[in-house]
Queue: 3 jobs
Job 1
Amino acid sequence: MLIPHDTRIALDTVVDLMNTAAQGDRPDALADLQGLHVFVRAHKISDVGVLDAADLRAVREVREKFAAVFSAPEARIAAP
């Protein structure tokens, strides 16, 4: 199955977002605004204005929602 370039970039970004969460000895890479800036620059996310605490909260909330989907025991639970 071929995955279009834009789709691959989006999926890679989601995987990288999930990998920002604290795990074991690795701290949360999105613990502060500096971490969010690093993530945005590393992924060359365009049209980003001034980032603030609300943006950080929103990105962390999205990460939590993805985590819930990926950890759901069944597909119908992941996509209600």
Job 2
Amino acid sequence: MSNFLKLTKNLVDICIRFITQIMSNNLIYYTMKTSKKEFRFNSITKITVVLLFIIGSLQMSAVGMSSKASLTTIERHRVWLNVTGPADTFSQTLIGYRTGATDGVDAGLDGAFFNNGAISLTTLINNDRYAIQFRGFPFSSSSMMPLSFATSISGTFTLAIDHMDGLFLDPNQPVYIYDVVTNNYVNLKTTNYSFSATPGTYNDRFRIVYNNTLDVANNNFRVSDLVVSKSNDSIIINSGNTVLVNVALFSIDGKMLYNNNNVNSNELLIQNLYVNNQPMIVKAISDNGSIVSKKWIY
């Protein structure tokens, strides 16, 4: 109940109690013999009429406010995402934008994830997993929704849209899955996305985005510009004349091994990274937003 409706209810209660008290006193006063009886009756009657008028006005206002509140439109734009895997394993998560939601945790709107099956697909809020997550308005095509994928089995898995509503039904509004490891953008409205994974939890690999930055970035940073080498137990990454802002290393199945968001140089020395001899993905982001990924064997 709004503050106005609460105030109205309190005022009406006060007026009713006051009228009751006046009428009670008036009946008692009529039992007395005095020349002021008629004057007292007229005055009380006028006060009572005024108070009754006030009560009626307040109640009508309260009803009007309540009706308007009940007619408030709830705007929703939602996408249901599925992931399927071997042996008919399945999980679903809901992402969306809704009236009254925020980018944080919203009680009664966001739904925490509790069911740990063989595979699970959720979103993340402050590193906590949610089966349902709403964001607030306005919607922006630059928004990003981090996903968390967990599996207890190895195999090939497929991400797909189950259904959607609101603005996502617009054919001109894409919904991309961005794979950080492969640097792939796939519009799930037109194509499903398949990937391989081994048992583990992947909180850094997948994101839902609404534009493809590879289409708009100044892509003068090429794979051939990124040189990766090894010296003793250190990894050296050089990008020629290109300044890097981020470098991340992933195992071939998508697990993050290293991440540096503050490179700000064309060369990076990575020390004390204890990994077995294995192939890995080196992902580098330049200061103009260009992204290059290449496979390298440690």
Job 3
Amino acid sequence: MTMGFQFKLFLFFCLSSQSLAFSFGRDSREKKREYTESLRTFLVTIDRSLSEAQTQKVSPATVTKLSKLYQELSAKVSPQRKADLESALVQLANVGSVQDGDRQIRRLRSLVIEAFRVVTVPSQTPNYQDGEGLYKEYCEACHGGGGVGDGKLTQNKRFPMVPAPTNVAMLAESGTRTVFGIYNLLLVGIEGSMEPYDVLLKDEERWDLAFYLMAQPFSKKWGPVMDPRKLVASLSGSEQELLANVGGTLDKIANMTDIEILAQIKLKRPQIEKKDLERLIVSLRRGKSFLADTPRS
């Protein structure tokens, strides 16, 4: 065997090894991407189910979809977590009332977040103005200035958009969605309607946009928002007491629905006027809140 042939053989094995390593790396990245997409879709489906559970029992079709998504992810879960999740899905399938369905969906959501160690909060305080700019750049053409789905691209009668853009204003106004839920929706998109923004937008931009969208139901109605510290003081006379119930941290603001926030405030102030409740929520969603623990970099 000549030296030249040995060298060529050595070079062949080196290149083959590199090619194989690259292939394995690509497969690993693809599997990770698929896993992340399945997890986010699971969370989005839970979020939609929570909205459904406000007015009716969770449908068998929804339970079947949740169970299927869970099966795609179950290999990554510890035996104890797996038992808890499977028990929650069984109980959800056998709920006897709307109230039970709502409670079981919330329990399932908490278990999923714990089991898969999902990060449910932005790494820095969201910027409302940046979110507004992102909406105008990426969303307004379809969803319209008011978010009702009447953007410029929907006006062409010869080539109508099918399906029509989601009414994001109504989605936010339902009071059953969280900022974290909207963030997940931006990550996975809506099949046949909205492309995912998992690559186009940076992580902090998705959070900026999600917080902006969730502030919209009352923003235009009430205009400029009072500083929340002044508003809390004027509502309760005890800022710290109300803060303890509302949340006041970025984590809770991102993960509580408007209905949950309203309920927490009303526990302390049953006679509070609706306009003050709405204005407080907008202040929280706009990020003008008690978020000193996570400053914007």
